[in-house]
Amino acid sequence: MTPADPILSIDHVSKEFDVSAPWLNRVLERKPKLYVKAVNDVSLTIPRGSCFSIVGESGCGKSTVARLVTGLYSTSAGEIRFGPGTGGRPVRVQMIFQDPQSSLNPRWRVGDIIAEPIREMKLRASEEETRERVDDLLRIVGLASDDVAKFPHEFSGGQRQRISIARALASEPELLVCDEPTSALDVSVQAQILNLMRRLQKELGLTYLFISHDLSVVRHMSDRIAVMYLGRIVEMAPAEDLFTAPQHPYSRLLLGTIPDIHAPNRNRELQGGEPPSPLNPPTGCTFHPRCALADERCRREEPQLRDRGDATVSCHAVAEGRARTPEEKET
Amino acid sequence: MMLHSPTVLEAAESAADPSPAPALEVSNLTVEFPTRRGVLTAIDDVSLRVEPGEILGVVGESGAGKSITGLAVLGLLEAPGRIAGGEIHVSGRRVDTLTEEELTKVRGREMGAIFQDPLTALNPLFSVGAQLVETIRLHTDLSREAARDRALHLLREVGIPAPEERLRQYPHQFSGGMRQRVVIALALAAEPELIIADEPTTALDVSIQAQITTLLRRLCKDHRTGIMLVTHDMGVIAETADRVVVMYAGRMVEMGRVEDVIHNAQHPYTKGLMSAIPSLHDRVDTLTQIDGSMPRLNSRPSGCAFNPRCPMAGPRCRRDRPNLVDAGPNRAACFLHEGGTQ
């Protein structure tokens, strides 16, 4: 399923990290070299103007994908391609990080933080125009123009995240990679930032690659969602479909365990198991030790992503029809 | 306070003791931090109660004072913080006036604690078994062998597979979820009447978080331990607690049964908070947002601390401070329920 106008396509991308012991230990203790496959054969395409989200638990490789896309890491295998940008120039990509406390330089004034990309990329001819642009950006993200002379510590967490968004917008990007942009914020402030991001997407025609572990935030923001487990995409589906009819057993586990204030599940059964170590992933389908539907084939053979309607799922049980969605069971 | 959940009432009736003392009773607690620029009041006039076998959720955003409340109960306030007023009773015994030495005996035996990060709560240099045995022997007069058996029993109870093997292992050999189970086992070691759980699931992934909250609920009902569950996550409260206290800027703004507070919030702050959480069931274009952010400790507005962010605020809100009054099924500190905001 390739959209007509992808702004980004990731093609069979893998990323390995060398986590071997130091050379001397390896020689003396006869330890082999050790690699972690943080991202394993991931393919996805993001249509222009949409919001694509990646969800998963810690260590599933979702942040690594974000860093691969922005070029902070280089790929071990596979290809990342950007579509043509507006006016024939390359697509501009910017990133928003989780913690605005550590992603803003505490010794710089807000005006300089936001102006840096403009000055660096020579987007405005004069200092006068740069200042005007910074002023505009501050207004767009809901800050006051006299905030330029302040330092980051003078702001609350939510306002700091607004500063990072203004800085990201300074270089007029078309694709924004947002790595857990609201995870460090309180709910009432989170709503402010999410509303701001939705408004900016509409007004500026942005495309988002949104990384989060919070499924309710992801549902609010996304058009299409990929669920990752141990470096692989296990299910990719339109947001609505994933939440109403999750297909992969792991997606169902995730959706079944998130606390929901409107329909709390107070007397649930204990869901067993924890994600295994990525250093030594299980054979076959990496989810099989936690999966109720696992059989001999799941333990032996790695499942591949297969199209099922609008979704793609990587599960033998789903492909063989052994996994029925709860709705199907009812009928 | 007649706001017990039905399960607690039933349990209380079936108990042998006709009127057990509440596991925790805090009345009019005030905590201050004297600084060079004046005294900052972190907790202002907080009163709450946890019955045996009940989970009381304390929820609020960062800076609301929920963790400080927990620390004050445990007697772990860091200097210069001090209790400036009010009383704290744990199972009928007053603890805020105890000396450090007396407190050390109460802590662990009568009240246990579970903190956010299990790695810092465990000593990396001792095996899990040694830490459990030490805690058990400190609070009971069991022999080393009996304490070891009890440690095994505790690990089994908190759902750690192969406990004999696990006793000999060190904290770094456990995963995050398993470490938190060990911390819970430690908190249970002396069968305390009260457990203060401060963000016990925040550092964990959702699927593990569900395991831990289920475990807490089960232990609370099985041992009739009162749990004060401090968290910022309304979802965890919804699934775990019986009653909930909502805090804002050091004061209680609303208190009631969990269902009532979530579905029938009476305070404008609680209402805003509930609708600011994105729903899992339907998608809205814009989330309800509360503008602004919580005031800092040194710049709290006069009157109701929420008034600058409140859509319903009137002149009275800027002048006077509201106290908790009956508001529908709950209790709320808002003039809307006390004759208007004019």
UniProtKB/TrEMBL annotation, chain A:
Composition bias, Basic and acidic residues: 301-310, 319-331
Keywords: ATP-binding, Nucleotide-binding, Transport
Membrane topology: Peripheral membrane protein
Region (Disordered): 264-284, 301-331
PROSITE patterns: ABC_TRANSPORTER_1 (PS00211), ABC_TRANSPORTER_2 (PS50893)
Xref: Pfam families: ABC_tran, oligo_HPY
GO biological process, one term: transmembrane transport
Keyword Nucleotide-binding belongs to the record: yes
Top-level taxon of origin: Bacteria
Gene Ontology cellular-component annotations: plasma membrane
Primary residence: membrane
UniProt entry tagged with the keyword Nucleotide-binding: yes
Domain ABC transporter: start-end pairs: 8-255
Molecular-function GO terms, alphabetical: ATP binding; ATP hydrolysis activity
Subcellular location: Cell inner membrane
NCBIfam families on file: oligo_HPY
Family indicated by similarity: Belongs to the ABC transporter superfamily.
Record protein name field: ABC transporter ATP-binding protein
Source lineage: Bacteria, Pseudomonadati, Pseudomonadota, Alphaproteobacteria, Rhodobacterales
